Amino acid sequence: MASSARRKVAARLGVTVVIVFFLGTQFAPSVQASEDELPVVSYINRETSGKKILPDFASIQLGESVPEQYRAAANRFARLWKEHVTGIKGYDTVKDVPFTLIVPDKIDETVFDGNEPKIREFLLEHVVPGALVEVKDQNTYLNLNQHPVHVNLSCFDMLMAYEINQSAKVLTKRNITEHLSLVFIVGNLTESDVQSSSTNKFNKRNIQETNRYNEPQRLEMKNATKELALSKENRIGQHLMNFLAGMKSGTKVFQHFLSSSNLSNLMDDSSYMVFIPSDTAFQRWHPIDWGFYPFSVQEFTEMVLRNHFVRTKQPLRMADLRVIHGDQRYKTLGGEYIVLKNKPSPNVNNVTILSDYTLSNGIEVFILSEVLFVSEAVVSRLHQMHKDKETPPLLAFPWFGAQFLSHSFLALERDTRFTQITRFLNTAEIAQFISGSNYTFFVPTDEAFERYSFDLLPDSVLASEKGIKMLLNHFIRGRLYDRDLKDGELIDTIGGMPVKIQRSFENTVRVNTARIVESEVFVYNLGTMFYTDDVLYPDLLKDEVKAITDLKNVDRNVPDSIGGSDVYTTELNPPLTDRPTTTSFRSLYGLLTTNADVELVPLEVTESNKRNSDEDSSQFQDDEIITPKALPLRYFYNPKK
Fold first, then answer.
1. Domain FAS1: where (predicted)?
2. Which pLDDT score, from 0 to 100, does residue 273 have?
3. Which CATH number fits domain 235-387: 2.30.180.10, 1.10.3470.10, 1.10.530.10, 3.90.1150.10?
4. Per-domain residue ranges of the chain
5. b/e per residue, 319-328, with b = 16+ CB within 10 A?
6. What are the tens digits of pLDDT across the range 142-200?
7. What radius of gyration, in Å, describes the C-alpha atoms of the chain?
8. Which among 80, 172, 230, 356 is least buried, having the fewest CB atoms inside 10 angstroms?
9. How far is CA 481 from the centre of its chain?
10. Does the model's pTM come out above 0.70?
């Protein structure tokens, strides 16, 4: 009985093993394939992928459409295109599809040896169909050879710049027509293959096999393999973080920057030398009260960190450094070179090594007195590129609770182009609406205000409810950059009215009807100003402007009647004539005068004094009569009957 039961169990187990083995053999290839499959990349111009189309720019003189320093490169590319690509069989030339030409600064035609297919493949490698390429970090397109064209932000000589396919530095971009733009680069997209060997067959198959472009990754993940990129924890990086966490003081700033980056994912199981600047070293670059802190620029900080890591087979210990003869030179993960010396004391690039630690997993740690590869010149150039990162001084005037508004006001006050907007800001009480920071301000020039006669408006109008609303329609909550002003986008203002962004193919940007004449005027790290040539929503004050225009046609010394049947005059005995009463003058009379300016005297009260007044006046000669302008006017009126 027991043996029978055991046989049944064994039989069932055998069947189960067979089924599992069968399923394993069926699904193993698909699982393996999924593991080897490259990540899916979303190409911006995927709609034109696989289409054999060519741009039509035969009638366009590329050289005449770009600045002089880029004309030679544009003309060279256009000439090669005309000679080797125009009329190519199997491709259709289209006019209504956008294209981007990626123009190398130099093309060495000798490497082609007159080979027509080589030149053609080279040119097609530099054409992106279906899109006007935006030079923006992590944008990826496909060129006419169906290869990725990946834009990323990287560091060149310790300064940030854009590059394509992690090799060609971007110089500039120019929009030529509505459907054509040029991106000028240093080098070319196939430089490594073309220059490696003159006998290399430059055909489509070889491009696909030997010129495997890296798939797009985050800036911090540059050159990381797929396995490391997917790994959330790395043993080497984790050991280093544990070491820094155990340090009571002195390395907290480096620990903070390292934990905020993905640098540890670049580290494999090799041995490393890690150079850690002390907190005092970082503190040197921190502004005392306000100013620019270079490590507020994330990409720069990431590159600095990379240049403090050295991958090596055998780390150099401090004991070895003290007795070794000569300099020891190493290349960092960021591509810079460091030199270790033992005289006059152990140092790296002439920076003193304060202490050293040997970790159990093959990491040698050196604590430094300074940050490597950071100098006054580097920080100054970085500052010019990132003025939006600069911290401001705290202002108590004019509006303590509105720092963006205060700094904007002071900056505009120093510019003679903005006397009207500073008067507007000084008059209207808007600090309560623009408190703190993180704003965008569209600033009209004086010419824009004068175009609508706003310069004639009194302060009382600017401070009125309509005046404040018009001013607030020039402010947006949230800091915008030029790249954020996208064509066709509607953005709500603090005044409640939306503004529409219009960006032409010539890169001219308009906000409603106002053209931006100066872009990205940074107000420290508080916000951004854009100078415009027009006022937004000027119709809000059109009635007040019309009243001012009407007043200019009226004799201000003898004003018209102001209200009802009451007659106001500067004459003691006014002529009995009916004068028309206008609403515009009544409103302007109230705007331009105050109670202190005008004294109203009933006409009948003054009749009894008329005789005495005539007698007194006869005692003065004409040239002795003085009417000071500072004295108030006396208006006489007849009360309503």
1. 237-372, 405-530
2. 93
3. 2.30.180.10
4. 53-186, 235-387, 392-551
5. eebeeeeeee
6. 898 888 888 877 665 555 677 888 778 888 888 888 888 899 998 888 754 433 333 33
7. 38
8. 230
9. 4
10. no
